[in-house]
Design a protein that fits this description.
The complex is a heterodimer of chains A (about 350) and B (about 250).
Chain A lengths: L12 H4 L6 H21 L2 H27 L7 H18 L5 H20 L7 H21 L12 E2 L4 E2 L2 E2 L3 H23 L2 H11 L1 H6 L4 H28 L1 E2 L6 H14 L4 H29 L5 H22 L3 H15 L5
Antiparallel strand pairs in A: 1-4, 2-3
Helix pairs in contact in A: 2-7, 3-7, 3-8, 3-10, 3-11, 3-12, 4-5, 4-6, 4-10, 5-10, 7-10, 8-10, 11-12, 11-14, 12-13, 12-14
Chain B lengths: L2 E10 L2 E11 L4 E5 L6 H8 L7 E6 L2 E3 L4 H7 L1 E4 L11 H7 L9 H6 L2 H20 L15 H14 L4 E5 L7 H17 L3 E5 L3 H7 L2 E6 L2 E6 L1 H5 L2 H8 L4
Parallel strand pairs in B: 3-8, 3-9, 6-7, 7-8
Antiparallel strand pairs in B: 1-2, 1-4, 4-5, 9-10
Helix pairs in contact in B: 3-6
The chains are: A mainly alpha (about 350), B alpha/beta (about 250).
Bound molecules: adenosine-5'-triphosphate (ATP) and magnesium ion.
Magnesium ion binds next to helix 1 of chain B.
Chain lengths: ~350, ~250
């Protein structure tokens, strides 16, 4: 009875076009933002902020980037980590070589570099689809890592191939503590998520989905195929690039190219499979699930140990984690391709009708 | 004359889908294309809006001459269509599907849209209003937020017509808009087509198997058989044409 749109009549299309047309959703979002921006930085301990929440947000941003490309525009990609690597290493180089730029412009330029790489490796999408396209993006994954490892310029000729990201300072304020790094990340991620939502509910988003759902019909109604696909690659890679820069500057600090391996690409792909392809919310749910689930599993096994007194080995827990992830991915691919976001939506629809199911 | 087709031939390998077909379409008219299965009707529409590229022949649309139409170009010039096997965007809502029909009229850059700046917001609203008019016209208000994949066949056909209308086309190509519908749905669809033709002055070329419908709503009829035009004229003339009767009865050639 609490979750209702009854009585909330929309008197104009403008009202109907809000991101959250239902009042309860707006309130929930407000509360969530207040908790994320105020309560967590004040109350959360350093470990949680720096080791869990900050990477969670960064992966959510990367997943959002991939979701724009794969979930919305229907172009499968296995190169997410490579675009993140471009973002991370180019941000490092911009800050290093043009310190007068400032950190935010450096991040934007790094994102644009990732977008350029994305467009180049997106060119095959004009001819090939699905599995073959995934293989082409795989080439991007390997090529980019190879280039960063081999070409000294990217790592400023560091002998170990490892870079140390510079400190984030904006308008003289250093973002050095876990809480500040978290807030910096949260702000960037929240703004970019809002921009993505706006984009996906406008003409650009509809063009992406049209190309995804039926490309012949899309071109017959005048949607330019080449421009739309390449724009999807560019925007997606921009998001992944900025996520990579955040990953280096606000999370890892010390970065080796190997951090952006194919495994990371797959992890982010799993986030959108579990969270929901073609959903902004799904990117966050997926990232949260994949980041938090192992922690939950550890807690559960500790608890079980205390209660039963039987010792559970670490290896068992981590194997269990892999097995459950695998099973979940298969479950979602087969049963609910639209992921957790869709389950959440169904729950809300049920709730709207509750307690009268029909 | 809004459209004329001259000596168009199209072959897929050995299959000659169209052979030296010529006909014209007058402004504001409802022009039907009929013929047995595999006669080349859909291929003709596909040539008209640049999905298929004929080997020979010319198309003249609103004074411009083409040997080979591009689908993007055709859309920009005011040709819209529906498909024989519904080609809607399954994952999108009815509203979004019809909104895509207006993509060529939207000018804001993606940066404007991402920042939801004034012009982008205004543009979105303005087109939403136009699309709501189409939704009212087609009487599909109750399903505007439903993903089209969940709709029954008859309604999907209606939504596809809506998406084509959203482009405010000069020429509307309909490929079997009433196939697979029950009587009531067919009557609705006939009414919509005639209303579009009368209210907006849209020229219509439609393919239809139901002869009753063709006789009722079309001004002139082209008959194709094995890729060739075998008759052209008013419904009355065509119905009494011996070659047409033979083609439909399957008399040997
Ligand atoms: N893309 C294609 N590739 C190969 N052959 C094709 C293609 N499209 C159509 N054809 C062939 O061209 C011929 C005409 O097909 P078309 O679809 O135009 O017929 P139609 O008159 O629309 O028939 P129907 O009433 O069954 O829809 C058929 O022999 C068909 O097999
Ligand atoms: Mg056909």
């Amino acid at each position: 009875m609490l979750y209702r749109e009854a009585g909330q009549f929309k008197s104009s299309y403008a009202e109907d076009q809000q991101i959250f047309p239902i009042r309860q959703d707006r309130i929930a979002m407000g509360v969530l933002l207040a908790v994320a921006f105020v309560v967590l930085p004040l109350a959360g301990n350093e470990y949680w902020l720096s080791a869990i929440l900050t990477p969670l947000l960064i992966f959510a941003l990367a997943a959002l980037g991939l979701n724009i490309l794969t979930g919305y525009a229907g172009q499968l990609s296995l190169g997410t980590a490579a675009f993140m690597a471009v973002g991370a290493f180019m941000a490092y180089n911009f800050v290093l070589r043009m310190p007068w730029l400032g950190i935010l412009p450096s991040f934007i330029l790094a994102g644009l570099c990732a977008a350029a790489v994305g467009v180049v490796f997106g060119l095959p999408s004009l001819r090939i689809k699905g599995f073959y396209l995934a293989v082409a993006t795989l080439a991007c994954q390997f090529f980019v890592l190879w280039a960063i490892q081999r070409i000294g310029w990217f790592t400023n000729y560091s002998s170990s191939g490892v870079i140390t990201a510079q400190q984030v300072v904006i308008l003289g304020v250093p973002f050095d503590t876990p809480a500040r790094k978290y807030l910096f990340t949260l702000t960037v991620v929240a703004l970019m998520a809002l921009a993505a939502k706006n984009l996906m509910r406008s003409e650009t988003g509809r063009a992406f989905m049209a190309v995804r759902d039926m490309d012949v019909a899309a071109s017959v109604i005048g949607i330019p195929m080449m421009k739309t696909k390449l724009l999807a690659f560019a925007i997606s890679s921009f998001y992944c690039g900025v996520a990579g820069a955040l990953h280096a500057f606000a999370y890892l600090g010390t970065v080796e190219p190997e951090a952006y391996s194919l495994e990371l690409s797959f992890n982010i792909l799993f986030m959108i499979v579990i969270g929901g392809a073609g959903s902004i919310l799904g990117s966050f749910l997926g990232a949260a699930f994949i980041t938090l689930f192992p922690i939950f599993l550890n807690l559960a096994s500790d608890w079980l140990q205390n209660v039963t007194g039987i010792e559970i080995q670490h290896a068992v827990v981590s194997n269990l984690r892999v097995i459950i992830f695998g099973a979940l991915i298969i479950f979602f691919l087969i049963v609910e391709p639209l992921g957790l976001a869709r389950l959440w939506q169904i729950t809300k629809e049920k709730l709207r009708l509750w307690p009268f199911p029909h | 004359m809004i459209l004329s087709v001259e000596n168009v031939s199209l072959a897929f390998g050995g299959v000659r889908a169209l052979q030296e077909v010529s006909f014209d379409v007058q402004e504001h008219e409802v022009r039907a294309i009929i013929g047995p299965n595999g006669a080349g009707k859909s291929s003709m529409l596909n040539v008209l809006n640049g999905v298929y590229h004929p080997q020979t022949g010319k198309i003249r649309f609103r004074g411009e001459e083409f040997t080979d139409m591009e689908s993007h170009r055709a859309a920009a010039m005011g040709i819209a269509r529906t498909f024989q096997n519904i080609a809607l965007f399954k994952g999108m809502t009815v509203l979004d599907n019809i909104m895509t029909g207006r993509n060529l009229k939207m000018r804001c850059s993606f940066l404007h849209q991402a920042l939801w700046l004034g012009p982008a917001k205004r543009e979105e609203l303005e087109h939403r209003r136009a699309v709501e008019e189409i939704i009212d016209f087609l009487e599909i208000q109750h399903i505007r937020k439903t993903p089209v994949g969940r709709l029954p066949y008859g309604l999907q056909k209606r939504v596809e017509l809506g998406r084509a209308l959203a482009a405010e086309p000069k020429l509307l190509l309909l490929d079997e808009p009433m196939a697979g519908m029950n009587l009531e749905e067919k009557q609705d669809m006939c009414r919509f087509i005639l209303d579009v033709n009368e209210q907006f002055g849209t020229t219509i070329v439609l393919i239809e198997h139901d002869m009753g419908v063709v006789m009722d709503i079309s001004n002139r009829v082209v008959v194709l058989d094995y890729g060739r035009k075998i008759a052209d004229g008013t419904p009355e003339e065509v119905r009494n044409n011996q070659r047409v009767i033979d083609a439909y009865l399957g008399v040997a050639h």
